[in-house]
């Protein structure tokens, strides 16, 4: 004796179930692809933002330090004499000088604080070092601050008001009027950061 399903109780056939699973798989694969693309785009945007922030930080610090440059030499720990008041393009120090900054120490008036600032180029990185003790080189420096990483062909140039120079060492005066940093960074390629020094301002 044969049995028939009552109206409204018919289920999916095997073909219909397979088609449904296939369509669901296509939708899931498409959604997964979109999520992966969105994640990659977000990661690339974050990397681009981080690279841009690094360039902006490097320019801001370089500009601020050079704007507060003081014509004063750090005292050498090796002898009683004094070193140059400005070093640029040296093999060990890409850029070095004394910076004068007004800081608050809790008193009624801010005080003038001197520190030695050095920018070094090591292993495709631009490093910033600050010493609050002007006795060099025995005085310990603060931890290296990495401004740029993975950068190629980094070098400084120094402007005297007419031409640019690859090296600048001043013992008692004649500071550069501008300093430029050139090189290549992974995200943006060739860069050039040029800033004025305190020598430019009246």
Keywords:
202 residues, alpha+beta, seven-stranded antiparallel sheet, four-stranded antiparallel sheet, 1 helix, 13 strands
Number of helices: 1
Provide the residue-averaged pLDDT: 79
Profile the largest sheet.
7 strands, antiparallel
- Uncertain stretches of 5 or more adjacent residues: none
Q: What is the number of beta strands?
A: 13
Cα-to-Cα separation, first versus last residue: 111 Å
Structural class: alpha+beta
Bulk shape: elongated
Q: What gyration radius follows from the Cα positions, in whole Å?
A: 31 Å
Helix amount: 25-40%
| Pattern of helices and strands | HEEEEEEEEEEEEE
How much of the sequence lies in strands comes to 35-45%
Characterization of this structure:
- By secondary structure, the protein is α+β, with helices and mostly antiparallel strands.
- Helix content is 27%, strand content 35%.
- It has a domain at 59-196.
- The longest helix has 54 residues, at 14-67.
- The strands form three sheets. Strands 1, 3, 4, 5, 6, 8 and 11 form a seven-stranded antiparallel beta sheet that branches.
- A hairpin with a 3-residue loop joins strand 12 (178-185) and strand 13.
